[in-house]
Design goal:
38% strand, 298 residues, 7-stranded antiparallel sheet, C8orf32 fold, 2 domains, Immunoglobulin-like, globular, 5-stranded antiparallel sheet, alpha+beta
């Protein structure tokens, strides 16, 4: 499937801010089954300094500096993506939870895609004993790793309530878990903490969902904004597999990957520092539109 993606972020500051430095993580990374072309990132007003580089984790970073006072900042990210539907066989290349945990610890590579990087607690995701105890019956040591993780994601989808007003971007994962409410970021964080507690490598993925579903299919929750899900390392044969706890599905042709990190703080779409600005208002607009009905091979 070919998609046209448009993401607009507008931030209004009152009063204007000075000496602003922003990090933008909106350019999609290379990902199996996904090809991106015609990427454009337009910033208004035009930055005084703009630098592009690869991030410490699998994300692309644009750093901008605004040396003059800024009352509003608008960022427009657009691209075309060809995404192929993968055949995800839950019965093939099975490895138990224990075997995957052991295999991850045996990996010698410590690069951005290494499972070792995503085993341990991170800045926003400490070990939460309550989450570990809650998830333990779902992640039996001898259970197939992927099947068990997907069942746990579906349990989150069925028993947690999607509520855009229940949490903020900085709400601790333990709090979101305790109220059983939140958004895709919260559900991804909860699943990651649960999987890591069992010794499984789990990463936070940011990206987009198809805005309009195919005829006869339900619209996926989270399609009106940037979406988040989990990448689980399922052993050397299966590798990384996406799991979407908000919708209780495997991430596939409807999911477009932008970046991957240990948690939201690694790959937030925009952050930065500036002088001034007692208040700010943020506006987000996301549109992921199919361009044709043909399935393309990446």
């Amino acid at each position: 499937m070919r998609y046209r993606v448009s993401h607009i972020i507008r931030v209004d500051y009152d009063p204007p801010v000075r000496l602003a430095h922003f990090n933008l993580r909106l350019a999609p990374i290379a990902w199996p089954g996904q090809q991106v072309r015609d990427y454009r990132l337009i910033v208004d007003p035009v930055p005084d300094v703009r630098q592009e580089r690869v991030g410490a984790y699998p994300f692309n970073l644009t750093r901008i500096e605004m040396l003059k006072p800024v009352a509003s900042l608008e960022v427009r990210s657009t691209f075309i993506a060809d995404v192929s539907e993968a055949e995800l066989d839950l019965l093939g290349a099975q490895m138990s939870v224990t075997k995957v945990a052991q295999a991850a610890l045996a990996v010698m590579d410590v690069g951005p895609m290494s499972p070792v990087t995503y085993i341990f607690p991170s800045r926003l995701l400490p070990l939460v004993p309550q989450i570990a105890a809650w998830a333990r019956p779902h992640l039996a040591p001898d259970a197939d790793c992927l099947s068990a993780a997907l069942a746990l994601a579906r349990h989150i989808q069925a028993t947690f309530h999607y509520d855009t007003k229940a949490t903020e971007a900085d709400t601790p994962v333990a709090e979101a878990f305790s109220i059983r409410r939140g958004v895709c970021q919260d559900f991804a964080h909860i699943l990651i903490v649960a999987l890591r507690a069992a010794g499984l490598p789990a990463a936070y993925v940011s990206g987009y969902l198809r805005t309009d579903p195919p005829p006869g299919q339900a619209r996926l929750v989270g399609a009106d904004a940037m979406h988040a899900w989990v990448a689980l390392w399922c052993g050397p044969l299966r590798g990384w597999v996406g799991i979407d706890p908000t919708n209780g599905v495997l991430a596939n042709g409807d999911h477009l990957v932008v970046g991957m990190g240990r948690d939201y703080s690694d790959i937030s779409p925009i952050d930065g520092v500036f002088v001034g600005g007692h208040s700010q208002k943020t506006f987000n607009s996301v549109d992921v539109s199919p361009m044709d009905s043909r399935t393309t091979t990446a």
